[in-house]
Amino acid sequence: MARETKAQRHERMREQYIRLIELYPVAQCSLHHRNEWELLVATVMSAQTTDERVNSVTPELFDRYPDAQALAQAQLWDVENIIRPVGFYHMKALHIIELSQALVERFDGVVPHTMDELTTLPGVGRKTANVVLGDAFHLPGFPVDTHVKRVTSRLRWHTQWRKTNPDPVEIEKQVTAEFPPEWWADVSHRLIFFGRNICHARNPECEVCPLASTCPAAPQFLAQKAEKEARKKYAAQRKALKGQRESLR
Ligand code: SF4
């Protein structure tokens, strides 16, 4: 791919994002929640598991513990039993109880709506805070998860794309500079949907990807796939030939 100017990259990012809008007209958080507290707790539990798993435990959890005051007084074993399906349940149960206690002690049980305050809460990092800002408070928030990292690197939406583990804060800074703040949460949602459904970590579906014609990583992935197919075909031909030879003996 020829070297791009900043303006050309901006133009390409906007065009690629329009294709993502066409692909996913509805962009929304896939963690079920009825208020900012439920979203905060659900997001903390969503680390290293699927949103579906989290959604499978939150109805019982929020039925038993409807607010921060209730969860702050919960027994650890009881919370562990409820959230067991999400994995790492010892640590996550402790985090959401401590988080609720901190909310009660320092914020009267009300979820704060600034990055600085949110990230003082136990178990709440920048990614979780951005989810809460964008999806609960409808403030600018651009969560950078593993899908956002991978997809934005392949699309060269930031200058850290060569790194195996690019800095999420730098990705957030560079990508959000290209979109209006009111779009940030939806840009992140669409990148996550796209990373889950098409631009997979192991085997991206470049052959059916609507961004392939403008994706800098596509030629390399397509060439690797073509080589793999050719090797498979060659191995099948050799096997067939061997079978023919043996039948002639
Ligand atoms: S062309 Fe391939 S690598 Fe590029 S965005 Fe699409 S699926 Fe991902």
Give an account of the 3D structure.
Keywords: 4Fe-4S, DNA damage, DNA repair, DNA-binding, Endonuclease, Glycosidase, Hydrolase, Iron, Iron-sulfur, Lyase, Metal-binding, Nuclease. It catalyses: 2'-deoxyribonucleotide-(2'-deoxyribose 5'-phosphate)-2'-deoxyribonucleotide-DNA = a 3'-end 2'-deoxyribonucleotide-(2,3-dehydro-2,3-deoxyribose 5'-phosphate)-DNA + a 5'-end 5'-phospho-2'-deoxyribonucleoside-DNA + H(+). Belongs to the Nth/MutY family. With 249 residues, this protein is an all-alpha fold. It folds into two domains: 79 residues, Orthogonal Bundle (Endonuclease Iii, domain 2); 101 residues, Endonuclease III, domain 1, CATH 1.10.340.30. It contains twelve helices and no strands. Bound molecules: iron/sulfur cluster (SF4). Iron/sulfur cluster binds next to helix 12. The site of iron/sulfur cluster (SF4) has 14 residues, from helix 12.
